[in-house]
Predict the 3D structure of the following.
Amino acid sequence: PNIPEAETLLGWPRGEIRTRSDQIRAAKELHKLGLKWVLVKGGHMETDASKCVDVLYDGSHVHELESKRIVTRNTHGTGCTLASAIACGLAGGLE
């Protein structure tokens, strides 16, 4: 989920996830709900305007996936695109 979605899923108030540590804590809490892998997208995090960091948690390790933030108004649907790419990979046999 993105930041606001993660907060909703966890029953946390909006704005609870403000730092990378909060983002990691959210991934770990979501994992406790029975998920094998959790990816908390960082596009809504406004702590660093130059980069975007997604947090992936597998139950043992936290992986921080960092990329340059692209400044554009045309980012609607990026999460859906990512979810579709992951689903296609899983359907194709990737683990």
In short: The chain is about 35% helix and 20% strand. Strands lie at 38-40, 51-57, 62-68.
